[in-house]
Amino acid sequence: MIIYITQDGDSLFSISERFGLPTGEIIEANGLGTHPFLAAGQPLLLPTNNGLKTENISKEQIQVIVNADLDGFRADGFIKKNGGLISFLCPSGYIIASDGSIEAQGDQSVLDKLHEHKVSLMLHIDCGELSTARLLHDDDLQRTLIKNILRQIKERGFSGLKIGSGISSLDPPAVVRFFRNIMRILQPLKIHVTAELDMRDWYGRQSLETMGNIIDAVILKTYGKNQSDYPCPPAPFGVIDEILQNAVGMIPPEKIFIGLPVYGQCWELPYTPGTGRGTIIGGDAAVTIAARSGAKIEYDEESETPYINYSDENNNRHTIWFEDIRSIYFKLRLAEKYKLGGVCLDMREYDAPPLWKLIDCGYNVIK
Length: 367
Prior knowledge:
about 375 residues, globular
């Protein structure tokens, strides 16, 4: 399997002729659908190594955690295709209420479908209207929350707990104390506990080392440091590398997971500072925009990130920075470099079919 970058004038037919591959195999490997659009600069996975000098993708062992918004229909199809490549799935929609109860926003039928496919699930919780500061400094509220966590895990069949960055990114010393309270109850029950940390708040702090010692796994949300109010790469390679280089000196590498977004952001140009964040957009949608508008997908090698500059039907200019299989491939290599536990893919509601082919060909996923 290689990654081929399409050129001006390429078509599925010309690519299939060049590499001796049926067009159906190319379409299937890349999830292109029945009426595929190709854009110049678009990366394609090709199930061959004919004629191109590329590095072989090593078969390293890795764990894959997935954050996803799944309705009942998508959950069934998504897991049928990719369940064997997911160590833990974290369905979104579990919010801590002001009284310490947990409000399940999602549909129970989604969990039922996931259980049918024997997918290990983690209860992913975050604060809603509840003040994070109040939660971190109210022992009674924490005790109530922990009881409700145990109830949700038992009733809904979760295999572990994941605390979102909305909770774990304020006041690191208080967060450490909060997790000690959680581990005191959940660890004897052998419930796996993972913390998602926004590295804007944790980078270089001694509390990071303490967190690594007391919990089972730490997701370093590398894109939190740069997902911002101005056009830029969502998860620059250099930033991730710097974060990991610092973190492996403080946390056992096997406990560390790289947090990566599987989407991007679109901004209208010219950009005016202070006008807010860009619109979230999936990678497939970004490629479709490039193909239909005739824009080329450019690639910033320093950040290992693709981007598109285009004009819409009203002649308004936009720029999109996003992630694709090429950029994620290079960032996955950092998990190998630092001997990490794995990767946490933040997918929201966006799928990325070629990503799963990449993982399937390149890694032995630990279930």
